Amino acid sequence: MISDSTFALQDKETLPDKVSKATDVADRRGRFLRDLRLSIIDRCNLRCQYCLPKELFGEDFHFRRIDELLSYEQLARIVDGFVSFGVEKVRLTGGEPLLRPGLDGFIAQLRAAHPTIDLALTTNGLRLEAMASALHEAGLDRVNISLDALDAAVAERMAGRAFSPQRVLLAAEAAREAGLGVKLNAVIKRGVNESEILPLARASFERGFSLRYIEYMDVGTTNGWRREDVMSGAEIREQLRELGELEPLPAKVFGEVARRYRYVGTDVEVGFIESVSAPFCGSCTRARVSAEGELFTCLFASKGVDLKPLLASEEDIGPMLRNLWLHRDDQYSETRTAHPHGAGSSNAPEEMWRLGG
Fold it and tell me: Is 54 annotated in some ligand binding site?
């Protein structure tokens, strides 16, 4: 097994350079914008511990009505504006994006306007099996599917509602059969689903799915985050020794979030998103827009910039978005690491279900 120190050395040697284009603009730390996370709905049909804990978001909790969210036309204008100065990848998020009516039509609209962008979607998979073919035909490239456990009892504890892991695996198979790229995402919380690390790895390996382990993060104020509940990527990799040797893979692009490995002798990948134990603020190339129209330049931001006044005008919003990115200087995770008992942000961070993961 190659150690983390070996990976760190290789990572420094092989990290792709930032490639500048004529349309690029760098923020205050020299980071170009490449990725847009676009939330299209705040509503979700699960109550996951790390996002929408059921103790606080019960059956009577009121999400925004569809007519209170940005319209597809407004969302498309935002994509147009961001693509005009560097965005290459758009990921549709929520909430649960498959809950919003007319999604395939919106995807087709984005694909027609921007034929070369990487268009992806994050979902819990509960509606995916029936929708996969239509989404691919509309122009979607890839899906990331959340799956935090294979044991039904553990999965339901994490999801906060009745949940069938096998149903999600069938949806993943259906998505791949439809032509979509598929990754599985698992948030690991110590004392809750750490027993599922190996079962998830085995199931992904056997089916040939790429799996991403995500460290439990302090996004928002309602998930009861404690540092001691975090299973680090290094701890998870240690458990994966049981399945075989891993070899690190070089980053494909600057700003790649996951540390990627491959099981030696195979093409099956496993990745680790280590925002807590190994922050990557210095290479973050992502912006997020909530379904209500707020721009967040960091996942841990305490407040966003309301884009609705810009959208009320018929002017090109690209230059205004460009100016907002120009003044970005977020580095929350690095600050948290440097001052673990202090403040990474002076205000309470926004909730993940509002701004998208």
Answer: no
